[in-house]
Amino acid sequence: MSDHPIGYYIVKLRGTFGTVMPGAPTLELSLGVNVANGAVTGTAEISQAIAPPNGNLHFPVHGHLFNPSIAHGLKLLVLEGQYVVSFPPPAIGSYLAHFNGAFILDDHWAGEGSYSYGNHRVGPVHVTRLAD
């Protein structure tokens, strides 16, 4: 019998900046976790009360869930992804912007971390698990 856990499960998380400041971005993650190798894939949505099209970003993410042996009961979730940003008129064109995030989570998927997207840096972010 193997000592390695097996399985695949879905987890939904929400990350809020500070004490849910008005106008601050909110990050929602819907992730699939491969328990055996720690691979994580899914989608991220960043919502913010600003003028369209910048108020709502939805894009794929991937990364890894680490279970370091030095911090019992804590996990490190590291994610990255890309999304398309279009230039406002009258300019023509678009480019890929990057998302990066790192979060320290407990066994209940609650914790803190930070993330960046484009030229924005957000943190500290309080992370909680959403109901299934």
Question: Explain this structure to me?
Answer:
The protein is an all-beta fold. The chain has one domain: Beta Barrel (Lipocalin). Helices cover 0% and strands 61% of the residues. It has no helices and eight strands. The protein has strands spanning 8-17, 26-34, 39-47, 56-66, 75-86, 94-105, 111-117, 120-129. A hairpin with an 8-residue loop joins strand 3 and strand 4 (56-66). It is globular, with a radius of gyration of 16 Å. The two termini are 31 Å apart. The relative contact order is 0.21. The model has no long low-confidence stretch (mean pLDDT 88).
- The computed structural class is mainly beta
SSE pattern, N- to C-terminal: EEEEEEEE
Distance between the termini: 31 Å
User: Percentage of helical residues?
Assistant: under 10%
What is the rounded Rg? 16 Å
Globally, the shape reads globular
Approximate strand percentage: over 45%
Q: What is the makeup of the main sheet?
A: 8 strands, antiparallel, barrel
| Average pLDDT score | 88
Poorly predicted regions are none
CATH architecture: Beta Barrel
Superfamily at the CATH H level? Avidin-like
| Alpha plus pi helix count | 0
